[in-house]
Each structure stands twice: as C-alpha cells, then as structure tokens.
Design goal:
The chain has 205 residues and is mainly α. The protein has helices at residues 17-40, 47-54, 58-64, 79-88, 96-107, 116-126, 129-140, 143-154, 161-172, 183-202. Helix 8 (143-154) crosses helix 9 (161-172) and helix 9 (161-172) runs antiparallel to helix 10. Mean pLDDT is 87; it is low at 1-8.
Length: 205
Amino acid sequence: MPPTTPAPGTTPAPPGRRERKKAATRKAIADAALHLFLERGYDAVGIREIADAADVSTTTLFKHFPVKEALVFDEDDDQEERLLNAVRERPPGTSVPAALREHALNSRLLTPDGDDRLTAFLNLVTTTPALRDYGQNMWLRHTAALARVIAEETGRPADDPACLALAHFALEAPRAAYGHADPRAAVISAFDLLEHGWETLTQDP
C-alpha cells in the first residue's frame, strides 16, 4: 500500500510502539548479520547464527529479510522516486543519459573517504558475487518505470524499445565500477557510451 500523504500544514504522526519495535528488531538483525559477515565472510555465516546473535527466531528473521542477501541491503522505499526525478527534474539542456549518470555517481557510487567500516562493507559486497548480483537486481526492478519516464520526457512512444534499452543499460552501468581501480572513471566511461549512442538515435534525420 502506498504511503499516505499528510494534509497540508500537518505533521506526520510519529511511529507507534509496534512500528518502533519492528524497526528496532530489523536493525538488530541487520547489525548482527553485518558484524558476522565482516568478521568471518558472507558465505561462512549461517542464518541460524545470525538469528541467535540478534536474539530472535529464524522465523522472525525471515519476516524481516526474506533471503540472506537482503540482510546486507536496506531497500529504500523512495529509491525509485529519486531515480525517476533525476530524469524529470534534470536541468535544461541536460540529456537523459547525463542526468542518469549524475544520479549513478551520487547515489550508487559509495566512496569510503577514510571510513574503515565502509571500506570493509564495500569490500564485502564487491568480493561476494551473490551480494553484487542482489544489489544490482534491486536496481534493475526499476527498469520499466524508468523507461516510461524516459519516453514521457522525450516524446517517444510508451513502448519504445530504445527507451527500455537506455533504462536497462543505465541501471546496469554502475556494475562497470566493480573491481576497477577508479570506479568513478569507470562509471563515467560507461555513461559516455550511452550518451553517444542516444545522441545518434535522437538526431533529426
């Protein structure tokens, strides 16, 4: 069910006790899992160990995280809206691929900046194929919605395969950063390819 938008001039009600308890349980499970994964490696840790560390049952764990990979990623409900707004609200004169490139660099390219824990987290994700694939698939689920917005913004048919292709490859492009010595340069290079291909496609005959 979509979230309810509060009436103008009102403040959203704070979460109730049940919601706070649910959020606290979810965080405890995720924190316990990440601690164990960073300490011993993703593949060496079992679900029951994580449940025991968080002091919950495995049934409770699966209510919050349906698969093991989900323990590492916090799926943001606003993720898709920010992605679509990157296209809708792009500055005048900015191409769709350029807008998606900036979104990818700002939202999907985490940099440690001296944070040892973040460095360890990024190393865990990039060196674990199951986590890399899961994280990428979290983004690919937005392909259809992104394709529709690209079509709307560029005046192309709603079922235009070029819009679907651009949406798919734009969401795939950050994969180029995995294991690259300069992840930012790798992402920019991938989007340069999309930019030039899109320019050729949209040129007036």
